[in-house]
Protein: Armadillo
Amino acid sequence: MDRGSSLEDDGSVRVQINGLRRLSETSGSNTIFEPQPQTSPGPRESTAESGYSAPAVRAPEKKLTLFALRLAIFEKAATGLGTLGFIWATVVLLGGFAITLDKTDFWFITIILLIEGTRIFSRSHELEWQHQATWSITDAGINSFRALRSSSHILVRAVKAMFRPCCLIRKQSQNTREITQFDQSRVGRWNHARAPTRAWISSDVPLFPYAQWVFLSRNISKVLYWLQLLSAIACVVLSSMKLIKHNYGEWEKGDSDKRNRKSALVIFYTLALAEALLFLMEKAYWEWKVIYCKLLEQVNKECEFGPAGMVSIKRFFYDAYSRCVNGSIFDGLKMDMVTFGMDLLVSNSADEQLIGARILRQFALSERFSDDTLQKLGINLSVVERLVEMLNWKDLQEEEIRKSAAEILSKLAGKKQNCLRVAGIPGAMESISSLLQTNRSSGDGADEIGEKNLILDHANYSFWTFNHLGLLILKKLARDHDNCGKIGNTRGLLPKIIDFTHAGETLLRDEKVAPSQILTVKRSLQVVKMLASTTGATGKHLRKEISEVVFTISNIRDILRHGQKHPVLQKLSIEILTNLALEEEATERIGGTGGVLKELLNIFLNQEMLEDPNHVRRAAGEALAMLALESKTNCHRILRLQALDSLVEALEIPLLRVNAARILRNLCTYSGAECFYQLKGVMAAAPIVLKAIMSAENKLQEVMVGLAAQVFKHMTSEESSMMFDRAGIKEEQLAEALVKILQKYYHPSAKVPRIRRFTIELAIWMMHDNVKNVYIFKELGMEKELEGVLETTAELESFNIFSGTVGLSRHSTTIHSLVETALKLLRDR
Structure:
C-alpha cells in the first residue's frame, strides 16, 4: 500500500509542518508518529503578519533633511533679496535715474549686478557639480563635460534674463529647473546604454583630450564655491563703502529728484549688502555643521555605512537640499534614506544602482533599521523585481550589486508576506538558481566527486558567497508550502541543491576545513529537509523527485559514515531519510542503498555516545522505525545485520528505549512468518516490557504496550508464564493496568494515538492465551470500557504515521474490529 495514498491537497485544509520535532518522553513533543497540528506564529511574526509595524526608530537622515531645510531658508531669503535688488536696479535706478546717476554710482551698480549674477550662477550649479563628484572617477571626464555644457546653457539664459522685463524673472527659474531635469534624463539614457557603439554620439564627443583629468567634478565644485565666497565678500565691501561714505554724486541746486535718487541708491546698496550677508551667514552655518560638527560623518556612523558610505550620505544630502531650494522648502523633509535608495536602485545608471544597493543592503542587515526597511521594500514591487533581476547579473564589475541584491532578498524572504511576493515574481526561482554554481558531472565517477569538483572562488569573483546566499534564500522561501512546489518545478534547481549536500570523507574528517564549506552542506540539507517534509500532493511529488536523484541517498550515506565530527549534518541527513520514507518507493530505495541501514544502526546503538545533545541517536532510531514500517525487505535487511540483541538491550537505555521499542515492534509485525525463529531473541525483552507497562506513562507506555502485543505472539503459554515470573508481575496485575489505561484515555489522545489499539490487542492475546484471563477482565469491567471505546473511536486511531494532521499508513485492522473481537471473547467464554 502506498503510504501517501491518503494525502489530500485541498487548499482549504492544508497544513504545513516545519520538519520533524524532537522526541521527548517528558515534554510530550510530537514526532512523525503523532499528528502535528499547525503551530501559531510567535509574537514577532504574528505582529508582522497582522499588518502592525514595528516600533519606530529615529532615522539618522532626519538630521540631514533638517539641515537642508535651514540652509534652504537662508538660500531662499538671500535669493529673494537678490531678486528684489535686481528688479530695483533695473527698473528704478537704471530705468528711472539712468541719465542723472553719477558715473561712480553707475559703475558700482553695474559691478554689483555682475558680481551678483556670477554668484547666483555659481551657487545654482555648485550642487550639480557636487552630484557629479559622487559619480565614478572613470566617468569623470564625460560627466564633467556634460555638467559644463549644461552650465553654459544656463549661464546664457541667466545673462539674457538680466535684460528681460522683470515679469519674466520667475519664468527663468522654471526654465532652469527644466534644463537641469532634461540634462539628468539625458545622463540616465547614456548610462542605460552600457555597451559601446561603433559610432560617436554627438552628446558624448570629448572635446577636450584630457577632460577626465582636467575637469574633475570635485575641483570645479571647489572653484564655484570660492567664486561665490569672493563675490559675496566683494559685494559686502562695495555696498558698505557706499553706505558709509554716502557719496552718491553731485547734483545741481533745485534738483527735485535728489532726495528720491539718494533713497533709491540707499535701498539698492542695503539690499545688496543684506543678500551678501545672508549668503555669508549660510556659508558660515554650513562650515560649522559640516566641517566643525562633522554632521555628514556623524550621520554616516549612525547609519553604519562605513567609510564607503560617505558617497551615499553626500548624495542624499545634496538631493534633499536641491528639493528644498528648487521647490518648497519642506520638500526635502519628505525624503528618507530607504526611499532614496530604492529610487537609485531602479534607475538606469550603474553608479546610482550601486549606491542604492549599498544603502538598502546596510539597512536591511542592520538590527535597528531592518524591520522598517523590509516593510517598505516588500510593498514596492518594482524594487523587488529589480532585485530579482540583479541576481542574473554575472559581469565581474557588477559583482557587488549582485551580492547586495542577494543579501537584501535573503532578508526580505524572512517575512512571510514578502516571501510570497518574491516567489510570485515571474522567473524568480530561475534567478535564484543562477546564484548556485556547481561543476558536478552526471556521468561516470560520481562516487569520486568531492568538494574539489565544485566551482571554487575565482581570483576576482566569489562563487561560494553566492552559493551561500542562494541556499539561504531558498531555505527561507521553502517555509511556505506553495513555494516548495515552485522550487521543485523549477528546471534543474533540485539537482543543484542536492549537489551541495555532497561531503566526502576528506571534507568531513578534516579538522581544518573551512566553516563556509560545512555551512554550504548544512544549508543544502536544510532546504532538502524542508522540501521533503512538505505536506499534501506537493510533498508527495517532491519526495518522489528527491529520491529519484541518484546522488541523494549516497550523499546522505557518506555523511552518516564519516560525519561523526558534524552531528548537526548527520541529524539533518537522518531527518531527510525519515521524511522520504513516507513514500513506499523511496523506502525501498533507501534500504537498497548499501550501508544506509548499517550506518543508522551504528549511530543509534553507538555505545561511545553516552549523551545525545544533538538528538542524532534519537533521529536515527526514528528513521529505522520508519524504514521498517510496512517494509518486509527492510525488516529482513535489519535482521541480517545481527542487531536484534542490541536493540533488546537498548530497551533499558532511557535515551533509546522508545525508538528501540518501535523498531522491534515493526520487525515482529512486518518480517513475515519466515523470520519467526530469527525473532525468538525478542523474548528476552518481555520482562523489560512488562515492567515498563506497569510503571511508565505517555509515549513510553504506548510503545511498550504495542511491543508486548507482538512479543508474546512469539511465545508459548509456558514461555509467557515464565516471562511473567521473571518480571515479578502477575497476569492479574497486567490486566488491571490495561483496564486503567482504557479508563484514563476514555477519549483518543493526539499525544498517544495508538495506545487504546495496542491495549486491546494485548488484552485479546491474554484472553486467547489463558481462559482465566477472561474472567479477570470481566471482573475488572473490561466490557464496559470496550463499549466506551466503540462510542469514542476517531480517525486519529487508524494510522501508523502522520504528515501534519493528515494520517498515513492506515492500519489493516480497524479499532472497531478489534473491540468486537475482544467483546466476543468476553461474552462467549
